[in-house]
Amino acid sequence: MAVHDVAARGFGDAAEAYEQARPSYSADAVAWLVEQLGITPGATVCDLAAGTGKLTRQLVPRYARVLAVEPLEGMRAVLERVVPGAEALEGTASAIPLEADAVDGVFVGEAFHWFSTAETLAEIARVLRPGGTLAILFNQADGDFEPPLPEAFWDAYRAAAIEKPPEQTELDDTKIATVNQAGLKDDGIIAPPVSDAGKGVVEAPKKEEDDADKIFTKVEIESSYPGGDGAWARFLNKNLHYPDEALNNNIEGTVMVQFVVDQEGNVSDVQAVGGPTDGGLREEAIRVIKKSGKWTAAVQNGHKVKSYKRQPVGFKTGE
Fold this sequence. Notes:
27% of the residues lie in helices and 22% in strands. With 319 residues, it is an alpha/beta fold.
């Protein structure tokens, strides 16, 4: 299935405007979804029809590897610029450029209506590992605008809006199955967690949690190195050693290191989740993070919390 002509014209020629105007996703909603899916931070996931990375940028801090598949060159160019932590790939929902059983989860943000056919569902199932999950997200305005927007606005909006994609009929006789976290097939659609009471909006259930031991993947203020980027650069200049094996073989690149920073700023669970695997670069990046001392803790709801942190450590030969 090729990219729908309306989508190609409407989105491909206006990638920068899309990036500036398209709303992002609620961090709380994404955090709740990630928790429900149970996909571990060390997983590989795919953001299908990623656009400029509105959803991708929220997946990168949460998973070890994020593959962003987007068919339009203009959108991918913006995505690569604003979400460098993801791997941008050219592809469509009916021809995903991944091997079979490649990912633990496929996320589709505000796009599934463009390609909701049996063909694409089969392709998504192909790239998912056993027990993998398909997550479909849509943004919806919460209530009417107050005060109401003038009619002139809506006239201009309707004149410039991209038309609705054609109705999909291929799924009429297709049964969609789900797979629970234990990897057992369920031949039905699970009910939403909370009734929408006729509003057309499904809300995540509210629950009380003890945040003392919880490790946050998304926070209001991220943990940081004391003194900021300048202090971090000085620390690296003094303490980072280029491994001889990598230097002799001209191996360079950026290692992405993930670790946990607790409420006191202590660093633990340090691991390399991306970057070159040869030449000892990952081992050196892990060593220097462990040597970095205490960090400034993340903040959520006005309190210091334990959180995941990702920090790039770059190696360049200078040749």
